[in-house]
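Sequence only, no structure available. Ideas?
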Amino acid sequence: MTDWAGSAQRLLDAGTPCALVSLLAVEGSAPREAGTRMVVTREGLVGTIGGGNLEYQAIHQARAVLEHPPGTWRIQDYPLGPLLGQCCGGRVRLMVERLDPSRSQWLGKVNGHEVRLETRLFDSHVERDEGEAGVISAKGTAPKAGDSFAETVGEPHVPLMMFGAGHVGQAIAGLLPGLPFDLDWQDSREGHTLDAMEQAAREAKGLVLILTHDHALDYRLTAAALSGRAQFIGLIGSATKRARFLSRLTKDGFDEAILARLTCPIGIAGITGKAPEVIAVSVVAQLLLLADMSADGGA
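Reply:
I predicted one. Tokens follow.
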């Protein structure tokens, strides 16, 4: 999930011609989802729409569009199997456009989060702004000059509250750039007060990770998070630590339904490595599963 919007704006600001390839719609199996973008210059590219022959053809089209005036655009439907020989078997709709520096303000609205933009097509240029026009369908007639449609750009981000800036916390944080999380990271050794950390845990509404250097602090933060509305509370530790915490939490009045929100140990089952980097990969994979469930309405 590359910062294609920021990259495109930097290229335009530097006077480098660039084209934007957008997956407007997807039907059936395809390498990437609708809303995926890739920026193409004469010498390189930023991002990917999934590789293979589809991407090869898209890059070729993008570089051809660069030979036309800024604002030039094309829309093309690709049945992946019959036309491109890809085994995905689905169908995609691509839009290829040469970005116009004079109409690039919309790129600033895209910061990695989900944004709803209205796209208006004209003979010689494209205009975009926040709006709610009709949704594109891969099965419908391709949009043409004079049409407007809605694009969902980016993806929803899940709030992630992480406590602890030790080796594991640092390894997890290092994996998060480009992933669909809004990280709020606190550690008592970095100037955050215990009261403020407890309040943050209690007010968290998304995902919570607790991995501090102090078991007593871990307990306080776990109890605070369980008192709030966090969707997921992940506590670093062993099965023994889990048993001790559950016993104490039960004595402190937390019932089974509330305690079911606590996950300890954290990470994907079956990954047993203890190195911070291994734990981080396992935990981030678990968070991505939770983020997908949240996007589907299942969390």
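The CA atoms of residues 207 and 287 lie 8 Å apart.
Hope that gets you unstuck.
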